[in-house]
Amino acid sequence: MRKKILFKNWGEEWLDKKRLYIKESTFFLYNTNIRKHLTEYFGNYYIDEITNEMLHLFLKKLIKNGASSGTIKNIITLLKSILRTAIDRNLINNQNFKINSPINKEIKQLSILSISEQKNLMKAILENLNYKTLGIIVCLNTGVRVGELCALQWKDIDLKNKVISITKTIQRISCDGVSRVIITTPKTKTSIREIPISTWLRKFLKQFHNKNGDIYLISNNTKPMEPRIYRRCFYKFLHDNKMENIKMHTLRHTFATTCIISGSEYKTVSTILGHSNINTTLNLYVHPRMDDKRKCIENITFILK
Fold first, then answer.
1. 8 A C-beta contact, residue 115 and residue 257
2. Where in 110-162 does DSSP place strands (E)?
3. pLDDT digits over 20-43, tens only?
4. Which of 58, 87, 177, 239 lies at 20 to 30 Å from 230 by C-alpha?
5. Cβ-Cβ contacts under 8 Å for 130 (sequence gap 6 or more)
């Protein structure tokens, strides 16, 4: 006879077993989405009572409540995994659950700095050169994420061989109203990478080099600076220098776009950025210019003549 189990109990059991195989940050994300969304909606139903109609109504509720497409995608992926495992455990029939994340119709405009904006930014940095502004230079020249930058220690920076090793990141995780900062492995396996240091960047790093490898680059301390604190420092720096307010991630976009425009191979850029798939790089940064498209059309015309 099939075991009867409430969704809320199955969700806890599923998460408890999953905890052994996922990162701590992923566990807290799963835990938050299960408690805040899935258990709230399905909690008091038996797992074998869930139907496609209920899934559809749940999705409509998420959309109505204004959840972002990214949040909805994460929740739906999580729900599918929980239901698939329940099928494998013979808790529910092997039915074909149909629930898909809504298509994101928003076209996001990629924010990058123009050449003149980059020059103005560098001018302001050179007039206020310190450990924190050094971080901005590193971002512009390597494309590292802010969490990766905050986790950089001098032992990760090989000035002799001109290589930066990205092996960790810093992030704040929260669960049941309690949050804390953790140092963990980067976003994906491909985010663990080595990035070459240009001769130009090396001269700045040499100015601040610390022989104590446990010192963090931008905090100049054995205690790291949290990403949200560093973002505040960045925004204050922009404000104090009467510059337009931009997101820190714009520095990463600017680096990637500059690499592509300069003719770098897409795979190389993807590897430096730590993207898990080259398609991510292509979709974000590779947009044929009109001259390129015109040349393509003319080549076809030449062949047909």
1. no
2. 157-158
3. 888 888 888 899 999 999 999 999
4. 177
5. none
